[in-house]
Fold these 2 entries.
Entry 1:
Amino acid sequence: MPAKSSKKRTTSRRSKSAKVKPLVGVVMGSKSDWPVMKETVAVLDKFKLPYEVRVISAHRTPDEATAFSSTAASRGIKVIISAAGMAAHLGGVLAANTHLPVIGVPMKGGAMDGLDSLLSTVQMPRGVPVATVAMGGSGAHNAGLLAVQMLALADDNMKKKFQQYKRTMKQDVFNADISLQKELGDD
Ligand code: RP5
């Protein structure tokens, strides 16, 4: 019998059964966005937030985009995270069909390296906000954190976990400074 690996497995919170209803809907315009959007789901996994991940395009599968966001609330979704590149209309289309908050992650790449998707996502007309984060990996990470913060408004346990995350981040900066001072003092 093969020896059991002592390596700790990280459990994906992607909802695979009807028992665990997803609270966050992560939607991307293309499978080509997935390498970046893995950063979002890594955050959701860390905070043990159940989610679903879909590829739905505002332009290539518009009916599915409308169906996804118009049924999201009734399926228990609380926050939608939308990632798209180039003429990135996905966040806006999703936001048009739901009262749920939509977080937009502009993807880098293309002729303008993401400036086009940043502006397409952030420059929403009055009345239909898309909470736009930074382009690329940092934005994808922050989108996950924003979803955590939104859900923490009504979940004390989630709030405590987020506060602990902030304390750890602060301590990491202190440690980095101590380490740098040691390096500089070693001259
Ligand atoms: C957008 O166009 C997608 O979100 C992706 O970022 C970009 C390119 O899509 P592919 O041509 O790689 O499918 O709709």
Entry 2:
Amino acid sequence: MLQIDLTGKRALIMGVTNRRSLGWSIAAKLHAAGAELAFSYQGERLKGELEKLTKDIPTARLYQVDVTEEDQLKAVFADLADVWGTIDYLVHAIAFAPREAMEGRYIDTSRDDWVTALEISAYSLVAIAREAEPLFTEGSSMVTLTYYAAEKVVPKYNVMGVAKSALEASVRYLAYDLGKKGFRINAVSAGPVKTVAARSIPGFMKMYKRVAAVSPLGRQVDQEDVGNLGVFLLSPMAGGITGETIYVDAGFHVMGMDLGDD
Ligand code: NAP
């Protein structure tokens, strides 16, 4: 398989819970390509899991960052400024919406739940880009993770679909701001993959099965597919691409109608 060489590059991956996490799937590919890695995890309870995951990567740096806590966010970039000086790549793989906001009708979303979902899932990208920008260097780039429900109605996805729309629009505006310095940012729009966050979405397994039934490739996508696209977009191979939302969904989103098998 074609291997990108990222020896000497440094990447911060934000939002890894376990080995199924999409953040981890991109991290594993970055590691295989030779990049040095740092990770952030939300709460102390996840530290042990991340230590286990990174036990074969002795240079990995681990930081606890809840993206709603400005001081925690600033602390990770201050430390990386000290130890690394620059950051080449940044992966934003963070999303959250209260469960009750994804169970009923979108119209019933409470103000608090709406603000929480948008703050954690979309505003965090803006805050992270702002903190990272001074550490970016020639060729630096970011990726975030999004989903088809940003564009079309996916029942139950509700406020998370609206948050993903804000996320994708932010990618375009951030691309404009960062592009002036030659830095890039793109979104990976992944089809359903079994992760902790995905399994908390009501009806996730129905969505998961539907993709294999309808998509041109007739299959689901997995962590491997997402990791490959993430690393491609971060790397110099995608040097002319910014502000984009690129799908890795076995082609599901190109279908306008499903007539069953014919
Ligand atoms: P995941 O492993 O559960 O990752 C989501 C991460 O977000 C978790 O590490 C979670 O930490 C973190 N997070 C939540 N609130 C946070 C906060 N306040 N501060 C810092 N981190 C916080 O699930 P995933 O599926 O890989 O999700 C990664 C990204 O991919 C998300 O943006 C998701 O929407 C997107 N995505 C997933 C799929 C899919 O089917 N899996 C498809 C398209 C897009 P905790 O574990 O501590 O909550």
